[in-house]
Each structure stands twice: as structure tokens, then as C-alpha cells.
Amino acid sequence: EFLVEISGTTVTITCPVTEGNIAWDVAGTKEESTGGKYVIENHNSAPANVTCSASGKTYAMYLNARVCTNCEELDALAVTGIITADLLITFGVLILVYYFSKDRKGRAGASAGSRPRGQKMQRPPPVPNPDYEPIRKGQREVYAGLESRGF
């Protein structure tokens, strides 16, 4: 039920009891205050037990607040804007890369060693392999040794 506010190295603690004199006990140091707030300047991020008591009621809390001197506070709108801008830039770069690589495919025909892209030329028939030539008349003796042998 405590309210803790952190800004830079300043920690502000608000006690649930708001009326009367409030006695604060923070890490063994006792202090009286008339308001319900206790301010710790230059907090060193060390854990501490915090107790506030007033009119017979005592509230205790374990404070483990991390603070830093060079921290910047960002609200949800700023974080959302940063993430959205990052995604838009990323998608923009992806689209540019896609379109530039798409155009390169069309220019690949102009490189050395490629065929002209004009009319489709018919391929000449493949050169016959002499190992698989058909048997012609008069050449049967060449293949006579290839007969299957019966056992």
C-alpha cells in the first residue's frame, strides 16, 4: 500500500497513513514528518527496511529500488514511437533491397558468356555416344562377344 516514486537517484515514499505526525524508520535512522511522504536524496540502491507509524498503526516495507544517475525516463508513447519507426525503416530497407535485386535479374542477360535473349533458338541434337550406337548391318562381329552366356 506504499507508494514509491523513483526519479534519478531520488526515491519518494508515501505512507498509507496520511493524518497526524508520521514517524519514519529507514534503515535504522528515525525521523518525524508531518506529511505522508519521505524523500531519500541520492539513494545508493542498497536494500532497506522502511517503517512508517502514526496513531498506533505501523506499516513496514522492504525497499529494493535500483537507481542510476544517467537514466532517462521514457513514457509508453515514446517507446511505441521508437519501435514503430524502427519497424518502418526496416520494412523500407527490405522493400528497396527486393526491388533492386529484382531489377538485377533482368540485367543479368547482358553479362559476358550468356545467350542473347532474342528469339528462342532450337538446340542441335546431341552428339551420339559411340558406346551406344545402334548395331548396323555388317558390324555384328564387333558385338559378337557380348552375347549372354548360359550356365
Structure explained in plain terms:
The protein is an alpha+beta fold. Among the domains are: 3-63, no CATH class; 74-105. The chain contains 1 helix and 7 strands, in the order βββββββα. The protein has one helix at 76-107; strands at 3-7, 10-14, 22-26, 29-33, 37-40, 48-54, 57-63. A 4-stranded antiparallel sheet has the order 4-3-6-7, with no helix packed on it. A 3-stranded antiparallel sheet has the order 1-2-5, with no helix packed on it. A hairpin with a 2-residue loop joins strand 1 and strand 2 (10-14).
List the secondary-structure elements in sequence, H or E.
EEEEEEEH
Distance separating the two termini? 102 Å
Shape: rod-shaped
Poorly predicted runs are none
Q: Main sheet?
A: 4 strands, antiparallel
> Helices and strands: which structural class?
alpha+beta
**Helix content percent band:** 10-25%
Mean pLDDT: 77
Radius of gyration: 43 Å
Q: Using DSSP, what is the number of strands?
A: 7
Query: Which strands sit side by side, in order, in the main sheet?
Result: 4-3-6-7
Beta percentage is 25-35%
Number of helices: 1
Organism: Mesembrinibis cayennensis
GO molecular function: transmembrane signaling receptor activity
Region (Disordered): 106-138
Protein name: T-cell surface glycoprotein CD3 epsilon chain
